[in-house]
Amino acid sequence: MGAIAPELEGRHDVTATDPATTGRDASAKNHWFAVSAVAFGTFLLVTAEQLPIGLLSPVGSALSVSEGAAGLMVTVPSIVAAVAAPVVPVLVGRMDRRLLLVALMGLMTLANLASALAPNYALLISARVLVGVAIGGFWAIAGGLAVRLVSAPLVPRATAIIFGGVGAANVFGVPIGTVIGGLASWRIAFGALSALALVVLIALLAVLPPLTAAQPVGLRRLADQFRNQGVRVGILATFLIVTGHFAAYTFISPVLQELSGIDARLIGPLLFGFGIAGVAGNFIAGAAVAKRLHATVLTIAAALGVTVLLYPMAGLTAAGGAVLLIGWGLVYGGVSTSLQTWMIRSAPQAVEESSALWVAVFNLSIGLGALAGGTIVDALPLQGILWLAGVLVLVAGLAVWSARRNDNLR
């Protein structure tokens, strides 16, 4: 899922080396091993959140529930994560963020172990609630952590690495987990996820420096962020872009097959290509936001909106559909890094608060997007979800354009 760019030094009163605002000691070294460990954590989070997508049938069969009911394994943690993102930082007060991240990874370890051992559906969903708590709390802290781990000029690169875990999970984590579930069992897949979480926990303990909170996150400080124009625009843009994306992408398989005429056997390889393009887009955006943040976010919104809106016209052949899908992945891959950068630059003195709100909206939008897409697919032709997604993303672009005079975001 960017930050304080090099040009910040000449234009702002607050720098990334101010302990009062970031908690980073000016004499501290760059903690690249810590950045890598946090990236490993984001990889695990997204894998844990989306793994059940490939396991709905075997879980439903084993626990005697419908695939629709099994689908709650994805919906529930997303909604819980949206609530946990702002709530966890408030509840823990000044707790050392290093210990908090380790504790949340411990919760992830236990929750996935409980999922693997769950004797019935109710206990499995209960375990997925705990997964949601871990996702929301961890991501809320990790999203803005780059400003505390590396010096200001290196923050965009570090943030791109942290959010590289998101794309890597889509490319490798979920498919590999699904294969494990198919070859062994879904319980083994969840068990492997628990073991991976334990590895991340140990890595975080080994390489994260102390991350004492400069001041606790409070409800008033969270509410105060809505007075900040940059934060308001960032939250609105995130809501529109992520809702639009997941409204359409949730149904990308029928779109590829029914609109583009692509054989079902090619869907997997094409989605793999989408993921690879997303990883590339993440790092391209990470480099671009360091130079021109506002222009980069505006370009992403415009390009994504146009790409999705072109699909019903230019994606009606296998070649056209495949090209547009890869382009879609490349552009969407830059969304997390660029919007997280936007939030940090909008509120450099309240990074945790703005990040927590952003993570909450991001996760909520995933669920709302899938719900909106499902409603439209049932009522309108398949092209309807593409029109919806494209319009929402272009409206997000208008919101981004409205902040063009904000010096913090240039």
From TrEMBL:
Keyword Cell membrane in annotation: yes
Residue ranges of every copy of the Major facilitator superfamily (MFS) profile domain listed in the record: 34-408
UniProt-recorded Gene Ontology molecular function terms: transmembrane transporter activity
Keywords: Cell membrane, Membrane, Transmembrane, Transmembrane helix
Main location: membrane
Region described as Disordered: 1-25
PANTHER family the UniProt entry points to: CHLORAMPHENICOL EFFLUX PUMP RV0191 (PTHR43124:SF3), PURINE EFFLUX PUMP PBUE (PTHR43124)
Record-given protein name: MFS transporter
Native species: Nonomuraea aridisoli
Native organism taxonomy: Bacteria, Bacillati, Actinomycetota, Actinomycetes, Streptosporangiales
